[in-house]
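for the writeup, i need someone to sanity check this before i put it in the appendix. the sequnce is what the collaborator sent (i think, or maybe the updated version? ugh). structure was predicted straight from it, no edits. if anything looks off just tell me and ill rerun, i have time this weekend
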Amino acid sequence: MDFMPILYALLALGALGAVFGLVLDVADKKFAVEVDERVAAVREACAGANCGACGYPGCDGFAAAVVAGEAPVNGCSAGGAKTANAIAAIMGTDAGSAEPRVARVLCQGEVGTAKERYRYDGYKSCQMAAQMVGGPKMCPYSCVGLGDCMDVCKFDAIHIENGIAVIDPDKCTACGMCEKTCPRHVIRVMAKDAKVIVRCQNSDTGRVAREACMKACIGCKRCEKTCQYDAVHVENGFARIDPDKCTRCGECAKNCPCGCITIGG
């Protein structure tokens, strides 16, 4: 048997392999994309929740944006000041003094406080229940209380208690996922030291609002008249507080006949 053709074929394949390997090696060096080591370091410093609160597709996207100068070093709200300082150190800059923020529930429509239109017994979804004849609670501005916000919270900061969402401010990272998920928009991320809060957004007339919930704002303007700092105004049927003017004296809460303004928490 003549082995020469087989030998020639093997040599030819070997030569082609060597040529292709050389071409690939040259191409790899020529078109290689340099990876900034700071990207991995920033990614490691992030909270790792991949919550998207920073405005980028996960922690990887945020890290790349920080190194590219497109995102602020304190953009990871889930990580807070600790993460901001760590990223600032990596980038050789100052994290600044970011104001601590936290999510708040602007509703007190608990079971027995908010009147029910019907007993909901379907799939546990606020989004779905809110579309069924206006939702189970009579107040169309109330917390539905089926836990969509709790399901998206990656920090175990939200629980449903007595038919309403309750947020633990010590666990909340102000990522904003609950705010985006709530179909009624009763959750707001705000400054942590804004402790005087109007926990009602019912813009119906006072009579209609009161019929739906015992703690609804009726727009009586007592809080507005009581405030000596021009920090409270009734707009669109319910009270609003200007955090820049509010001194947290608590007089508005004391004079609210419906108890829809709270202090602390």
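The mean pLDDT is 87. The chain has three domains: 37-91, 101-190, 194-265.
thx in advance!!
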